[in-house]
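ingest -> validate -> predict -> emit
validate: passed (alphabet ok, no gaps, 135 aa)
predict: started
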Amino acid sequence: MKITKYNINISRLRQYILNFSSLILAILLVFFLASKIYQLTLLFSINLVPPSNYLLEDIFTYIFYFQFIALIIKCFQSKNYFPLRYFIYIGIATIVCLIIVVYKSVTYINIYNKAILLLVLALYFTNTEKIKYKL
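emit:
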Protein backbone atom coordinates (compact mmCIF):
# COMPACT_ATOMS: atom_id res chain seq x y z
CA MET A 1 0.00 0.00 0.00
CA LYS A 2 1.31 3.37 -0.99
CA ILE A 3 1.63 5.89 1.83
CA THR A 4 0.27 9.24 0.82
CA LYS A 5 -0.27 12.56 2.53
CA TYR A 6 -3.97 11.71 2.71
CA ASN A 7 -3.26 8.48 4.64
CA ILE A 8 -0.99 10.29 7.09
CA ASN A 9 -3.63 12.96 7.75
CA ILE A 10 -6.29 10.31 8.42
CA SER A 11 -3.90 8.54 10.78
CA ARG A 12 -3.21 11.77 12.66
CA LEU A 13 -6.93 12.55 12.87
CA ARG A 14 -7.63 9.10 14.29
CA GLN A 15 -4.80 9.58 16.81
CA TYR A 16 -6.21 12.95 17.92
CA ILE A 17 -9.67 11.42 18.32
CA LEU A 18 -8.21 8.56 20.37
CA ASN A 19 -6.26 10.94 22.60
CA PHE A 20 -9.25 13.22 23.10
CA SER A 21 -11.61 10.37 23.93
CA SER A 22 -9.05 8.84 26.32
CA LEU A 23 -8.71 12.20 28.04
CA ILE A 24 -12.51 12.55 28.36
CA LEU A 25 -12.70 9.00 29.74
CA ALA A 26 -9.99 9.78 32.28
CA ILE A 27 -11.82 12.92 33.40
CA LEU A 28 -15.07 10.95 33.80
CA LEU A 29 -13.31 8.25 35.79
CA VAL A 30 -11.73 10.85 38.07
CA PHE A 31 -15.19 12.34 38.61
CA PHE A 32 -16.65 8.92 39.48
CA LEU A 33 -13.67 8.21 41.71
CA ALA A 34 -14.26 11.47 43.59
CA SER A 35 -17.96 10.68 43.97
CA LYS A 36 -17.10 7.23 45.34
CA ILE A 37 -14.72 8.82 47.86
CA TYR A 38 -17.50 11.22 48.87
CA GLN A 39 -19.97 8.34 49.31
CA LEU A 40 -17.51 6.38 51.43
CA THR A 41 -16.74 9.39 53.65
CA LEU A 42 -20.47 10.00 54.12
CA LEU A 43 -20.94 6.37 54.99
CA PHE A 44 -18.28 6.51 57.69
CA SER A 45 -19.27 9.94 59.01
CA ILE A 46 -22.92 9.00 59.61
CA ASN A 47 -21.82 6.09 61.85
CA LEU A 48 -24.20 3.68 60.21
CA VAL A 49 -23.09 0.10 59.90
CA PRO A 50 -23.57 -0.81 56.25
CA PRO A 51 -23.78 -4.40 55.09
CA SER A 52 -20.31 -5.77 54.51
CA ASN A 53 -21.07 -6.60 50.87
CA TYR A 54 -22.06 -2.99 50.18
CA LEU A 55 -18.87 -1.66 51.74
CA LEU A 56 -16.69 -4.18 49.90
CA GLU A 57 -18.45 -3.42 46.63
CA ASP A 58 -17.78 0.31 47.07
CA ILE A 59 -14.14 -0.27 47.91
CA PHE A 60 -13.64 -2.56 44.92
CA THR A 61 -15.38 -0.08 42.61
CA TYR A 62 -12.99 2.59 43.89
CA ILE A 63 -10.04 0.30 43.11
CA PHE A 64 -11.33 -0.42 39.59
CA TYR A 65 -11.72 3.28 38.81
CA PHE A 66 -8.18 3.82 40.01
CA GLN A 67 -6.90 0.91 37.87
CA PHE A 68 -8.50 2.25 34.71
CA ILE A 69 -7.14 5.74 35.33
CA ALA A 70 -3.69 4.21 35.77
CA LEU A 71 -4.19 2.26 32.53
CA ILE A 72 -5.00 5.46 30.62
CA ILE A 73 -1.94 7.17 32.10
CA LYS A 74 0.19 4.18 31.08
CA CYS A 75 -1.27 4.43 27.57
CA PHE A 76 -0.12 8.04 27.23
CA GLN A 77 3.30 7.23 28.69
CA SER A 78 3.90 4.38 26.25
CA LYS A 79 3.02 6.30 23.07
CA ASN A 80 -0.65 5.23 22.92
CA TYR A 81 0.00 1.53 23.32
CA PHE A 82 -2.28 -0.44 25.65
CA PRO A 83 -0.34 -3.44 26.92
CA LEU A 84 -2.56 -6.50 26.90
CA ARG A 85 -1.18 -7.71 30.21
CA TYR A 86 -2.71 -4.75 32.05
CA PHE A 87 -6.17 -5.68 30.80
CA ILE A 88 -5.51 -9.24 31.96
CA TYR A 89 -4.42 -7.98 35.40
CA ILE A 90 -7.63 -5.96 35.69
CA GLY A 91 -9.66 -9.00 34.58
CA ILE A 92 -8.07 -11.22 37.21
CA ALA A 93 -8.60 -8.61 39.93
CA THR A 94 -12.21 -8.15 38.86
CA ILE A 95 -12.97 -11.86 39.03
CA VAL A 96 -11.31 -12.18 42.45
CA CYS A 97 -13.41 -9.26 43.71
CA LEU A 98 -16.50 -10.86 42.22
CA ILE A 99 -15.74 -14.05 44.13
CA ILE A 100 -15.35 -12.07 47.36
CA VAL A 101 -18.46 -9.89 47.00
CA VAL A 102 -20.96 -12.13 45.22
CA TYR A 103 -20.94 -15.62 46.62
CA LYS A 104 -23.76 -17.61 45.04
CA SER A 105 -22.76 -21.25 44.92
CA VAL A 106 -19.78 -23.53 44.54
CA THR A 107 -20.58 -23.99 40.84
CA TYR A 108 -20.14 -20.27 40.17
CA ILE A 109 -16.92 -20.19 42.18
CA ASN A 110 -15.61 -23.10 40.12
CA ILE A 111 -16.44 -21.26 36.88
CA TYR A 112 -14.74 -18.09 38.16
CA ASN A 113 -11.65 -20.12 39.12
CA LYS A 114 -11.46 -21.57 35.62
CA ALA A 115 -11.74 -18.06 34.18
CA ILE A 116 -8.86 -16.93 36.41
CA LEU A 117 -6.80 -19.91 35.25
CA LEU A 118 -7.48 -18.98 31.62
CA LEU A 119 -6.43 -15.40 32.25
CA VAL A 120 -3.25 -16.49 34.03
CA LEU A 121 -2.39 -18.74 31.07
CA ALA A 122 -3.07 -15.85 28.69
CA LEU A 123 -0.82 -13.66 30.83
CA TYR A 124 1.93 -16.25 30.67
CA PHE A 125 1.73 -16.48 26.89
CA THR A 126 1.62 -12.71 26.39
CA ASN A 127 4.72 -12.23 28.53
CA THR A 128 6.91 -14.49 26.41
CA GLU A 129 9.82 -12.78 24.69
CA LYS A 130 8.52 -13.53 21.18
CA ILE A 131 5.27 -11.64 21.74
CA LYS A 132 6.37 -8.90 24.15
CA TYR A 133 6.15 -5.35 22.74
CA LYS A 134 9.40 -3.40 22.82
CA LEU A 135 9.14 0.32 23.59
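The first helix runs from residue 5 to 45.
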